Amino acid sequence: MAGKFEVFLDSQSKFRFRLVGADGSVMAVSQAFNDKAAVVAGIAAVRECAGTGLVTDLSPAGALTPAVTVAAAPATEPTLDDRAAARLHALASAKVIRRHTAPAHWDWRRSRAELAN
Fold first, then answer.
1. 1-52: which CATH topology?
2. Which residues contact 42 (CB under 8 A, 6 or more apart)?
3. C-alpha–C-alpha distance, residues 17 and 42, integer Å
4. Are strands 15-20 and 4-9 parallel, antiparallel or unpaired?
5. R_g of the chain computed on alpha carbons
6. DUF1508 domain spans which residues (predicted)?
7. Is the distance from CB of 29 to CB of 9 less than 8 angstroms?
8. All structural domains of the chain with their residue ranges
């Protein structure tokens, strides 16, 4: 199971969302929002930018950290949703590339008008 977003009211009656991991641990908590529409926009922004965000290390250069071993995720077969999303992304990317690199060879409006006469 993937993580999920939970929308809630904080102690000041402001809306917030938190990102909860598959194991139930809270991974991130948002800023306060005035209404649910703003929360939805915040979640959409996180979904869009999270996968492409750059990592900037602001820790001091000489800071030592303990070694962390990251367990490899078990190899699972992609679900239908994962495959469909990947296929849609590939199709959208291909259309964008095609649109910019190969201009139309004919104008369909003009061609239909010519065929009608």
1. Double Stranded RNA Binding Domain (3.30.160)
2. 17, 30, 31, 33
3. 9
4. antiparallel
5. 23
6. 10-55
7. no
8. 1-52
Give mean pLDDT, residues 62-72: 64
Class of residue 15 by CB neighbours under 10 A (exposed 0-12, middle 13-18, buried 19+): buried
Of all residues in the chain, what percent carry a pLDDT higher than 70? 51
| Tokens matching residue 85 | 């999303």
Q: What is the pLDDT of residue 104?
A: 52
Would you state the pLDDT for residue 51? 74
Q: What would the pLDDT profile of 3-38 be if each residue is shown by its tens digit?
A: 899 999 999 999 999 999 889 899 999 999 999 999
- Joined together, the tokens standing for residue 66 give 């303990």
Distances (CA, A) of 86 to 29, 80, 81, 90, 98: 28, 10, 8, 6, 18
